[in-house]
Amino acid sequence: MKLNRRLVLKSSAACLAMPWFEALASPNETLAKRFVAFYVPNGMHMVDFRAKQDGLLSEQTLPYILSPLEKIKNKITLVNGLANKPGNADGAGDHASGTGSFMSCVKARKTKGDNIKNGISIDQVIANKLRGSTPIHSLQLGLEGGSAIGDCDSGYSCAYVRNISWAGEKQPLSKIVNPRLLFDQLFTGTDPNETAALRELRRIKQKSILDYLSEQTLALKKSISFKDKQKLDEYQTSIYELEHKLNSNVNGSCNNIELESTIGNLPKHSELMNDLMVAALQCGHTNVISYMMGNGGSNRSFPFLDINESHHNISHHQGNKDNHEKLKKINHWELEQFADLVTKLDNIQEGEATLLDQCCLFLSSEVSDGDRHNHTDLPVIYAGSLGGKLKTGSAITNKFKPISEFYMAIANGMDVPLENFGNGYRASKSILV
Amino acid sequence: MLRLLTSLRLFSSLRLLSFSLLLCLSFMSFSQVIRAEAEDLQELLAEPTSSSAEQLYIQHCSDCHGISGMGSVGNPKVFQCFRCVDADELTAYIDSRMPPQRRHDCIGQCAKLVSDYILDTIGALPAPQLIAKKMTARRLNKRQYKNTVRDLVGIQSKIADTFPDDDFGNGFDRMGDVLSLSPLLFELYLKSANQLADTIVYQNDINVKSYELSAEQFVSSDGQYQESIFNLWSTGSAITAFDVQNKGDYDFKFYHSSHPAGDEPAQFLVYINDTYTGPYQTSMLQNDKQTIEFSVLLNQGLNEIKIEFINDYYDPETKEDRNLLLGDITLNGPTNTIKHKTDSKLLFCDYLLDDSTQCAEQIIQSFAQKSWRRELSNIELKQLFEFFESITSQPHATKQYALSATFELILSSANFIFQIEPIPEISSGENQDLDDYAIASRLSYFLWDSMPDSILFNLAKNNQLLESHILETQIIRMLNDEKSTALLEGFFGQWLLLNAMQEHSVDKKLFPKYKKGLAKQLVKETQLLLLDYIQSDEPFKNILTNNYTYANKFLANFYGFKGDFGKEFSKVSLQDYPNRWGLLSQASLLTVTSHPNRTSVVKRGKWVMSNFLCQDPPPPPPGVEGIADAIKIEAKTLRQQMQIHASTPQCQGCHVTMDAIGFAFEQYDAIGQFRTHYENEFIDSTGSIKSSGKNKKFTNAQELAYIIKDDVRFESCVVKKLYSYALSSGITSNDELFIKGIVKDWQTTNGSFTQLVKSIVQSDAFLTHSYYDQKPKTQTNAQH
């Protein structure tokens, strides 16, 4: 990919220069709350992830993998012992089933491709309730795109391994991994040389096109099969989302971001995605983000950490010390990335507090131990308190409690109370203030 | 009849649900069969009489399947003999699964006898009716979108490169059920439509120009021009400048090579008018000419290009010296104008001069037909015209603006983005002919991953597509068209896992011969061979024992071929290199089925079983990890390890075959280089597998290839893979019936790939569809 610095600067300038954005911007009465799901693949080396004991973090040093968060530990919580039972695969395929049900907490149907079925994911439940409050309903991001072949995981379709956000049972939401694309998605405005008259004409044209497509789709749906209608439902929802985005007050860029080439440079790629996420949250483009550091069962290697084997292979450590060391290194790096994002959010003042205080960023993986593929004792931490609604600064244990109830508590904190979700029927009280 | 069909449908859906269960059970069945057969060997030696087999069938099977195999009253399970291709498979199935939900009481010899009886007697009965399925609407995948845009508008879509990657199902990225549409992708479709429409309307008359900048024109104080190459010998840069006639996006292509030295390739940055991209890496092969290509925005007038060499290397002791060699630069553009050849002009009359809207309407109609790959209804046309009018009537809107807006609309429509087939008129589940347009699209997306061209479109328009020989002639024409190379990446690349080469990593410390740039060449070798088989009359199965290949000087060096080779690929006889005979001995496939640092007997064995015999070994049973560890401690050699594998009850069912196959390939290391020894231990590549009912021995991969080639499961497996690709779906029990017919049909021909395509396309599965109106109980749409 080629990134032209001047072009980029021009397009962000274009956003800033658009007068109607400011004209339409309304002052926020209450500060918005934000939710970020941060997924890491292949489990965690739990020995160096678990807190030594429950209780205040200020009274203990964080374990090695979490050490990047040491400075900000008063704003995080470690939750030990949570389980995601629906993540258990039918037979083999725990990376796919675990990733599929990561945020849906229902069992993903085992199929290679026909009739895929999962459940709506928690981020989408929250985003649906917040619908209309931001230009973009929700963002799905990641660091690893698809692979070139379709052999995913023991009879599970790749859709389960690559997507943690599901708009519905059959609709995985593909993620953006290309920083340039995300940048355009967020900040690209119009040509600064466009006259007011032409801008108005363009607005009319866009609206007419979307109206027409909407009508046409309705007509088309009369003469097609049930399954095809479901496909066109996805199309119609997309029309609706785009209409909303075009009608919203976009804040343009409120943050200076310089794009640069990240090809073959994972650390840089990760850093840039973090910057873009911060900008998206800060500028009010969206309040809900899901982020995958890798696809389920990722085979990525980490040459910059001097690790040339595939992550997935190493995660089948078979008790081997050498593998443990490598996993520790990878996990530590992953948490550095998380800490970077958290810290950046904490450096932004919003009202009396920081942007981080209005957020909940939660991190976990599709399995706990990469060798055992267990979906119990999951590695779970979160940062931010959702404006004081969630407890922070401690380690707690919720043995065998379903993670769905933890999600319900977060939803509660986002002012989206739920009766039930996935396999959960009550919001976990242990993290709520 | 209707009732029968209903139950059939029920049966197949049950089958689908129990598919995963079946996978687990079939693991057991292999081992059971092996055991049972050993026990029953003596009994088997006595020739059974057909009447005893018949009695066994009546005793064990006829309750449900009927005396004639056609089902029975009250228990209407029509006998669907989709496993009748192979006696072993059928025997194993009966042994482990029949009768369902009861004690499996026909095992061992009984299963064998019954299976023979079914194959000899019942298999010969008229086949039960085959139900062609209704294809789910398929969103164009990335490749299809790009190809369609190329053939429709004539430009290489750049936005499509930024589309999120498509998800896979059944091993292919073209399954309607899996290809979902997100708001993000929709927005990108609209953006792309907008750019394409503008290009068609506004950029139609700018001439594309090509600028050639010879390496001689570089200016630098750190290098010199010699023999058509500019040699940059130390860290520094070379500059060249030139005049451009039209501002716009240009395709930039730059040839470079290097004198490699040290342990990393030469790296450089490319500056275009002060904006740089890179760093780019050269190949680690000496003088290996590579190109980098990207798109740049050039100004009208003077532009400047600078190449900066950033990592010079010189070792005074060994005199190893790394140099960057700059070749010519070509610039082609502007690319945001039409440059590929399309079937016909899109703007074929002058709508600007035309006072009425007649010309514009003709243009719109023609464009919409092409884009939606069918004729439009009058209502649809009227709506498009009205849209055009409504935009024209806006203040400040020109006719050009309105036409561009209409194109944008057409290209954003679900009719363009999806392949949607109209619902069959009768919804009782019977097969009905697809309309010609749908067939034309199925065909062109199957063989070209693109829209039908004007020849196909016109045949469809005149309802001639199904006339005698026309379909056949079209298939041949299409396969011989350059566009059929779409099958290389689409079908073969995914089936053989060849596409995974681009992301496969190899431990370069262990395998210094695996240099950067080699992977591409290895893939090319395989593709060239495949292309021969796509376009010739040679029986497809011969590809497994093929005795020639393609190589250039890098591959000749890699494989150790003697003779003169240039940079271009040429055909090489493998007469003197028997260990390279056949597709399976190509380094590309041997590499992609290895780990970065070592080979894997299991991985290769499983790959051959699943992709060439369609025998997917089920995943290891739970708790197997412990056994694996124990084996590793006990075994001294890999062979011993695998022998323990094969004698452990939990493992043997699958590993007997998988390991035998894998060992045959052990003479090739993790990058496909031939070897006879692990460090100092001799590699034993001999083994045997059960094939077509017999135990067959082999001493190496080539002999194994001959066995696979003659195994009935191989042909049927190729058919299954291509069928699944052609119809963008997985394989249900009903599809197995079609497949059986296609296999038979293919066997009556010369067995070429072309004939296989014909057999698939001419089957009812491809040419018809059916729809059974089942009203869903609840409609779920979580977003509303």
Please tag this protein with its features.
heterodimer, A: 433 residues, alpha/beta, Alkaline Phosphatase, subunit A, disordered N terminus, B: 784 residues, alpha+beta, Cytochrome Bc1 Complex, Chain D, domain 2, Jelly Rolls, seven-stranded antiparallel β-sheet, four-stranded antiparallel β-sheet, flat, disordered C terminus
How would you explain this protein's 3D organization?
The complex is a heterodimer of chains A (433) and B (784). Chain A has 433 residues and is of the alpha/beta class. Chain A has 2 domains: 5-20 and 28-189 and 256-413, Alkaline Phosphatase, subunit A; 190-249. Chain A has 12 helices and 12 strands. In chain A, the strands form 3 sheets. Chain A has an 8-stranded mixed sheet with strand order 2-12-3-11-10-1-7-4, with helices on both faces. In chain A, a hairpin with a 2-residue loop joins strand 5 and strand 6 (171-172). By secondary structure, chain B is α+β, with helices and mostly antiparallel strands. Chain B folds into 6 domains: 2-124, Cytochrome Bc1 Complex, Chain D, domain 2, CATH 1.10.760; 140-199 and 343-420, no CATH class; 209-333, Sandwich (Jelly Rolls), CATH 2.60.120.260; 482-599, no CATH class; 601-664 and 676-710, no CATH class; 713-769. In chain B, strands 2, 3, 4, 6, 9, 11 and 12 form a 7-stranded antiparallel sheet that branches. A 4-stranded antiparallel sheet of chain B has the order 5-10-7-8, with no helix packed on it. Chain B has a two-stranded antiparallel sheet with strand order 1-13. In chain B, a hairpin with a 2-residue loop joins strand 7 (267-272) and strand 8. The longest helix of chain B has 21 residues, at 19-39. The interface between A and B is large, with 94 and 94 residues.
